[in-house]
Design brief:
Strand 3 and strand 4 form a beta hairpin. Helix content is 41%, strand content 19%. The longest helix is centred in the middle third of the chain and has 19 residues. Helix 1 crosses helix 17 and helix 7 packs across helix 10. The chain has 2 domains: 135 residues, Rossmann fold; 215 residues, Glycerate kinase, domain 2 (Alpha-Beta Complex), CATH 3.90.1510. The protein is an alpha/beta fold. The chain is globular and about 70 Å long. The chain is built from 17 helices and 13 strands. The strands form 3 sheets. Strands 3-4-5-6-9-10 form a 6-stranded mixed beta sheet, with helices on both faces.
Length: 371
């Protein structure tokens, strides 16, 4: 049996390559004769640069930038040909914040990384969005590229409470002649009931009351940047504008175009061809839930598997969707580490527990041998 193993990173516990290796190791304990192929994936969030570097080669350039809450952090920019790849999570990721501070966390470091890529000669910059600790609408990124306003742009959403005017001319000039591509991990808009703050604010530490407040501040930001009419504000309603707490919106203001992060990575690694050459596709992520359908790795991989008429299964830390929802996403079955060892224990030794889960799942999908 030929099995393609194409997981995402597991929420700060395992990188995508580590998750793939754990699955392969466990599967082989049950079915040593099966041929398993590793195809670690990313959707624009954590692991974006590493996965693309593995597929493309190129040069990795280290840059030091300001992290989401002020401390300096290292960022690695991938240069391949005339294109630079920037992973926003390296500069403003949730994993960089010991204590969440979503009211003040800033995307300033992402702008610094983009500037470094342009200064190094890139004429095309692809920015992977996902996994951020920020919800500032990308105001910090704009500040790092030279934008100015009547309030500080690098102080998180709270600093935008009284904004009335913003000048983007310097930031736009900074990127003149550069093609800007936004590889988004989700297709949500910026504002409202289905926007960035409402959808992802809780996981970044925002309370229900703060969600309403922050959405109001971002609304003021949109009016200052775009205008108040529905036609002028249209960019805030675009798919992907809410990715990474609104980084998508800021990059669109600078002329960026949105693409699906998972589709970009899938095309780069040749996922369609690989899926067709295997009998089963295995993917996974830390938590498999309803947000997975909004542009995440699991949904993207399942879509590719379905197009190749191959079954797709999910191995995850937690599974929070039912069988009907799985089928709607193109997933045959999903299996959770938490169901095997419990939620608390699943975080303790993630590699071992995921490997053990893969061994058990192999009994169902590759049952030619008894353990």
């Amino acid at each position: 049996m030929r099995v393609l193993v194409a997981p995402d990173a597991f929420g700060g516990t395992l990188t995508a390559p580590e998750a793939a290796r754990a699955i392969i190791e466990g599967w082989h304990r049950h079915a040593p004769d099966d041929v398993l192929t590793q195809a670690a994936m990313a959707d624009g969030g954590p692991g974006f640069v590493d996965v693309l570097h593995t597929a493309l080669g190129g040069d990795l350039v280290a840059v030091t930038v300001v992290g989401p809450v002020g401390a300096e952090v290292p960022v690695t920019v991938l240069h391949h040909g005339g294109t630079a790849y920037v992973e926003s999570a390296q500069a403003c990721g949730l994993h960089l914040v010991a204590t969440p501070d979503p009211l003040h966390a800033s995307t300033y470091g992402v702008g610094q990384a983009v500037a470094a890529a342009v200064d190094a000669g890139a004429r095309r910059v692809i920015v992977g969005l996902g996994g951020s600790a920020t919800n500032d609408g990308g105001a910090g990124l704009l500040a790092a590229l030279g934008a100015t306003a009547d309030v500080p742009l690098d102080g998180g959403p709270a600093a935008l409470a009284e904004i009335t005017a913003i000048d983007l001319s310097t930031a736009r000039s900074r990127l003149a002649g550069v093609e800007l591509v936004i590889a988004a991990d989700v297709d949500v808009s910026l504002l409202g009931m289905f926007g960035a703050t409402k959808t992802f604010g809780p996981q970044k530490g925002l309370s229900d009351e703060q969600i309403v407040q922050v959405d109001g501040w971002l609304d003021r930001f949109v009016v200052a940047a775009c205008g108040s009419s529905p036609a002028e504000r249209r960019v805030a309603d675009a798919k992907g504008a809410g990715a990474a707490g609104g980084l998508g919106f800021a990059l669109m203001l600078l002329g960026g175009t949105v693409v699906s992060g998972i589709e970009l990575v899938a095309e780069t690694v040749g996922l369609t061809t690989q899926a067709a050459a295997h009998d089963l596709v295995v993917t996974g992520e830390g938590t498999y839930d309803f947000s997975s359908r909004a542009g995440k790795v699991v949904y993207g991989v399942a879509t590719v598997a379905a197009a190749a008429a191959r079954p797709c299964i999910v191995l995850a830390g937690h599974v929070l969707v039912g069988s009907r929802e799985m089928r709607a996403m193109g997933v045959e079955s999903a299996y959770a580490v938490a169901d095997l060892v419990g939620s608390e224990a699943s975080m303790g030794e993630p590699y071992r527990h995921l490997s053990d889960l893969a061994q058990r799942v192999a009994r169902t999908w590759s049952p030619q041998r008894l353990d």
